[in-house]
Amino acid sequence: MSGIHHVTAIAGNAQRNFDFYTRDLGLRFVKRTVNFDDPGTYHFYYGDEAGQPGTILTFFPWEHAAPGRSGVGQTHQTAFRVPASSLGWWTHRLTEKGVAYQPLEKRFGEPVLAFSDPDGMSLALVGVTGAENEKAWAAGGIPAEHAIRGFHGVTLLLEKATRTGAILTDVLGYAEVAREGAIIRYQASATPGAYVDIYEAGGFLPGRMGRGSVHHIAFRAADDAEQNEMARKLIEKHGMHPTEQKDRNYFRSIYFREPGGVLFEIATDVPGFAVDEPVETLGKDLKLPAFLEGHRAEIEKVLPVLEEENAS
């Protein structure tokens, strides 16, 4: 199975981020943990009921992070899939919540409603025919019939698409399926999270990492063996040098910066988010990896308290 595993971005205020994604967009708060490399900061995971690959949007909420700048070498937009018949409902929803949105447009024949989160991260809802038959997590006053069904895909803004496209197709399980203007579309086998669009655009300023920008995109590997094979191809056929494997408790990851400048991760589907708490109570308690449990008291002392009413 190939496709997007998760997308990780940088946010500002933790409560504002939590409120927007759980209450305004109705995603499930799947995991409350910390940045393993910076345990004084939360790492929030949002997704569907079980946090399945292809539904997981994660954030490092850094209160005083400077704003990022959209540009070349970054993820330009992150898109969710909703039933095609739900886009009218969502325009009312965003209006009701005071979220500015752009006029409805069509991309590869599908209706797209673009907007931004409170930190300026570029998001979109894509109306997909048949998505109404996919599982949905109903929360935040959003009925299941209109709820988000995980990722539709991401758009990368790159100077050149060729070498990145070669990695998508040769290593990550994608195939080029369409072109529309300067956008090249690649599709994987998994839904949700099947699409990567490369917007090939020279002459733009390079992006700058910060609040509202995507930190990295993770792609799926079924297990360690498939991840090892992907790493071998990256090294032998594409001259990439992925990191050693890092244990993220809920998946195991390697990282590399693709030729266009975007940080890519390859994450295993296993073990999943129920490894340290039941699916029924995902996200209720702060979960720490074993190597940080001895520091729980001091970590809890520096993390902001979340007000969670109606979060699930």
Automatic annotation (TrEMBL):
Domain VOC residue range list: 3-128, 150-269
Superkingdom classification of source: Bacteria
UniProt xrefs under Pfam families: Glyoxalase
Gene3D superfamilies the UniProt entry points to: 2,3-Dihydroxybiphenyl 1,2-Dioxygenase, domain 1 (3.10.180.10)
Cited CDD domains: PcpA_C_like, PcpA_N_like
InterPro entries documented for this protein: Extradiol_RC_dioxygenase, Glyas_Bleomycin-R_OHBP_Dase, Glyas_Fos-R_dOase_dom, VOC_core
Alphabetic keyword roster: Dioxygenase, Oxidoreductase
Molecular function terms from GO: dioxygenase activity
Protein name: Ring-cleaving dioxygenase
